[in-house]
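Limitations
The structure tokens in this dataset are predictions for the assembled complex, not deposited experimental models. Users should treat interface geometry with appropriate caution, especially where small molecules or nucleic acid strands are included. An illustrative entry is reproduced here so readers can see what is and is not provided.
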Amino acid sequence: MTLTLTALTSPPARVDLSPLVPETTRGRSAIEVAGTAIRCGRDRVGVGELFAVSGYGTDELVLRGELGRIDRIGAGMRGGRLRVEGSCGDHVGARMTGGEIVIDGDAGAFAGAELRGGLVRIEGSAGASAGAGYPGTRAGMSGGEIVIAGDAGQEAGAAMRRGLVAIGGRAGDGAGLRMLAGTVIALRGVGAEAGMGNKRGSIVSGRPLRPLPGYARAVRYRPPALALQLRRLRELGLEVPDAMLTGAWTRWAGDRLELSRGEILIFDEEEVAAG
Amino acid sequence: MSDGAYRLGDTEVTDEFAEAFPMRYARVVITAATDAWALEAARSMTGFATSVIGCKCEAAIERPLDAGETPDGRPGIAVLLFAMDSEGVGERILERVGQSVMTCPTSACFDGLPDGEKRVAVGSALRYFGDGFQASKVVAGERFWRIPVMEGEFLCCESVGVDTGVAGGNLVFLGADDAHALVAAQAAADAMRGPGIALPFPGGIVRSGSKVGSLRSSSIPATTNHRMAPTLRAQVDDSFVPDGVGAVFEIVIDGVSEAAVRECMRRGLHAAADAGALQVTAANFGGDLGPFHFPLSELRDPP
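Predicted assembly:
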């Protein structure tokens, strides 16, 4: 039986669950896992004080119950599969290098922050800074995929260097802030000030928007690489309209305050007047 | 007839074997906005690729691909390209994708052999055509290069897989005259094309089969197969052309495996017999050239 942790109650302080990932629980019994020390606020507590633990450790780990104050789920994970049945706290999958995390509900801030590899799937919405770099770091996410079925908060993909942040809904303001490279796709559009300081990254907006003045309109065309990426999003479970796969996108190049080699691709059946 | 010879209807099948040897190959998937443009790119890429001796590689269209079979959901063509080693495959692929695929309107280029033993660069070398304006995207763990071109962007996989295949399988069709022999050869070629098979000669058929070396010069690597030339039957002592035969055609087969070549030969043999070939035989070099032998006696059962 898959190792399953069910939250007994909402913890008195925020919990760092990063010690429990498939590679550390593999081969361990429920009793052993229940004895693992984790941080709850300033204190260290046993897992068994906060969770009912059942099953046996394999490549899969399941978390259930009220997990809104449980942070850093799957942080640093290198392989295996972790399923969150419900919503979870901040920093889920942060600095993860491999494996897959699936969150059935919403995720807090910094979901998949500084991701290195693997897949983070959020069936609900994500808080601010999904896939972003932490304050003070130059390069954030450097690989892997973050798929958010709902909306994403502010600064999704900020400082990302490689990888994909795909948002089925809408991205908040400041998406792709200081992006070095990589791709942020928001099928229902991105908020204000997208791509500020973008060097080589791609920001894809499924709804019309007026880019920052640092961007210049290049052309309306059918980007072949984007078609490939959108087909990948379909594989990952996002609903991508056929029109986006076959239709024309307007390419804006920028940010001219940086290299001007980044881009914002905007899907607009009736092109928004430039200027 | 000798022990291994047999008849399929009115067609005599000789007690011969085809001799083949290992070659390296890659599969490139070319897509485009329409079937027609994908075919244009594929034809251009596989042009002048009939024989590794004269063209440095052998290449042919493997099969058309439906939009549902291609990475970008557009119509496509799978091309197989064979060369003597991986480096040769890499050089030829690079030249041909660069000159024949990238130049073709609406085209894109993908790897059709992701699990190949080795990999050779394509997009990672062609990207320099982008003069610094190129960009890459990683999709599902695979890197693609976006090379800006006058039409928009040429999308190309970073590299393609290379594997070991079997080259030099063949069938030789003899007919009463050129028209009858060609009908039989065409029927065979139509039946032989399919997954894992490349027929590199024009229409899959070669009329100028060769022998190694020359009767008169040590500097010529290959010359006409005089023993199978009907016009020379009365003037050479070692002619293989029987009485009543007026024309001979050959189909050379490159395949991804020994089994693919064998079954391809089986299809071709029976199709040629159904189309009225007087005789079907195979070419070999006495068994010294290659490790793969395909005796016609083992192809008697229909496909």
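Some entries come with short summary sentences. For this one: The radius of gyration of chain A is 20 Å.
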